[in-house]
Amino acid sequence: MSYQNLTVIFAVVFLYSVMSRRLEQKPINGALLFCIIGFLLGNDGLEWFQVKLTNESIKTLAELALAIVLFTDAAKANLKVLATNIDLPRRLLLVGLPLTIIFGIGAGMALLPQLPVIEIAILAALLAPTDAALGKAVVTDPSVPAKIRGTLNAESGLNDGICVPIVFSLLPIAADPSLISNLNQMAAQLLAEQIGLGVLVGIGIAILAGQIIDYSFQTKEQSKTWEQVTVVALAICCFSIAQLAGGSGFIAAFVGGIVFGWLEKPYKEQLLDSAEGIGDSLSLMTWLIFGAAIIGSVLHEFTWEILAYSILSLTVVRILPVYFVLRGEPLSTKEKLFIGWFGPRGLASIVFAIIVLDANLPGSSIIASTAVTTIGLSVILHGLTAHSFIKALKKK
């Protein structure tokens, strides 16, 4: 990467950091602001920030950012509230998520008939996960009821890991339709590996790391300076070891964060605060690169059908399944719609879209263009509505 690009990235991050308190209170969130700046300064704008990173580089940055955000958000979660309301995320993950994918397939068959059904299914699956980082304004606002914050946080922490085996099962079938007879077996095996290994790695690493940190604090081995990277390193270890083992790094990071938070160590908060800032910084860098290098590159595929699908993906495809699965729960209509609306698409979908692009499917460019359009709209709409919808939720 050139020195000019490094200057742009860290100058923007620096300026945002010194004005962060004021900017976080504005309707335009950090992701939207960095996307706009990236687009204006990037390859299709002033060309001050010319990004020629490989897809793998962008994917790695997004993965690391998401792993840290998942770990820190999970570690800060109120486990007592989550345990009391565990039925809500369970319904969203086990029933709502499959329904969302099915609705997405139906919308794709109606609006994108040029894509084979299997590629439409891939598109629906890669857009099903919600984003922990993009929904941060909602899941961290104390004025939002704790059960809703816990539900959205748990859902976003686990649904991307569940979608990994779905996407990875469909990709080889899209390349070779004769493999469809093995779909159930492939999906079941991947699901068991991704979730099972992810959970085991997350639990094991967090417990082991907790013991090591305990010893470090008791013997005062750790300096104040290095406290800033402890949790970041731990989150990335959970992610990378799970990926090496064949599991889901995202689930490992989330589960590792839950276990780390459950340990309730006296040093937990001071370690998490610094890590949260690093995770947010990496997320915003990803959005800057997304705006500079990715948005413009897929605009040539843009059609009104893609726009219509993106709008449906963020509304009907997401909200109807959520509203359906929350029937009978002691939630008001306003609260159910709030949960349904705040399913932003972000880093996980970016990672999946890059994987699909690398697969070189016949419809890869259309899938990527639709994913980018949906993610871009999500950044705009969820960013602009977060504060106003939170205020509306508080009104009886």
TrEMBL record:
Domain Cation/H+ exchanger transmembrane intervals: 11-389
Transmembrane region(s): 30-49, 61-79, 91-112, 195-213, 233-263, 284-300, 306-326, 338-357, 363-390
Name recorded for this polypeptide: Sodium/proton antiporter, CPA1 family
Membrane-protein topology: Multi-pass membrane protein
Domain of life: Bacteria
InterPro entries per UniProt: Cation/H_exchanger_TM
Subcellular location: Cell membrane
Keywords (A to Z) from UniProt: Antiport, Ion transport, Membrane, Transmembrane, Transmembrane helix, Transport
